[in-house]
Design a protein that fits this description.
Number of strands: 13
Number of domains: 1
CATH architecture: Clam
CATH topology: outer membrane lipoprotein receptor (LolB), chain A
Order of helices and strands: EHEEEEEEHHEEHEEEE
Strand order of the largest sheet: 1-8-9-10-11-12-2-3-4-5-6-7-13
Distance between the termini: 20 Å
Number of helices: 4
């Protein structure tokens, strides 16, 4: 899952949906094969755990930072999505997303920042979170133009890269393009790339992934000590 160090809204970044863009028939067939793998995975997807490495590139100043940590994702039933990303390096921080609510814990500052996107944005938050994690081909085709990117290896795993161009002008203005690397074995994204204006992008790469583990609620909930400062954030 993507995490931007600047704007809280960019914490929740995973999107789904699209209007198919067909090219040569061979590419069509290959894209359809990716969709089938994703649909098969979505039918039984309940969650995952993995190690995560995120590269954040700020295009305007050419600055890059790499964060490493773990992710736990739980979706026990449709439209019930919970996620916890726990970054260990270089600066500890943890991000919990439950429904439309986001909580960011900064242990050094002993502060939790809270943001609620509201019920009107529930569907958008969910599709961002599930982009490549249990999203179906229909999800993709509902809101994006999908393009076939071709086979690539990520961490020695065979994957197929697909490119998503948002149909919504408002979404495209903030995130003009997404890329997903879908595992040829599991049908789940093992890498995601989110582009922003000005040659800024975030790349999240997952390893040691475990699919559909029996996760307790505590695995996707912030564990904070007593006395932390709670700071509400405005959208």
């Amino acid at each position: 899952m993507f995490l931007s160090k600047c704007r809280p809204v960019r914490i929740v970044t995973l999107a789904a949906a699209l209007c198919l863009s067909f090219g040569a028939s061979a590419a069509d067939n290959t894209l359809q094969a990716v969709f089938k793998r994703m649909d098969d995975a979505a039918a039984k997807f309940k969650g995952l755990t993995a190690d995560v490495k995120q590269l954040s590139h700020e295009g305007a100043i050419g600055e890059e930072e790499t964060y490493t940590g773990t992710i736990a994702f739980k979706s026990p039933k449709p439209h019930d999505v919970h996620m916890l990303i726990d970054f260990k390096e270089p600066d500890p921080k943890a991000v919990e997303v439950s429904g439309t609510k986001v909580r960011i814990y900064y242990p050094k500052a002993k502060e939790v920042q809270e943001l609620d996107f509201g019920r009107s944005n529930k569907a958008l938050v969910e599709q961002f979170l599930k982009l490549g994690f249990g999203s179906t081909s229909k999800d993709l085709q509902d809101g994006y133009t999908v393009q076939y990117g071709g086979p690539e290896k990520i961490n020695n795993e065979n994957t197929t890269r697909i490119v998503l161009i948002p149909k919504s002008p408002d979404l495209a203005a903030q995130f003009p393009k997404f890329e997903l690397w879908i595992s040829d074995t599991s049908g789940i994204a093992v890498q995601q790339k989110m582009y922003q204006p000005g040659n800024t992008y975030n790349v999240a790469t997952y390893s040691n992934m475990s699919l559909n583990p029996a996760l307790p609620n505590s695995a996707v909930t912030l564990n904070t000590p007593k006395g932390v400062k709670i700071t509400p954030l405005k959208r």
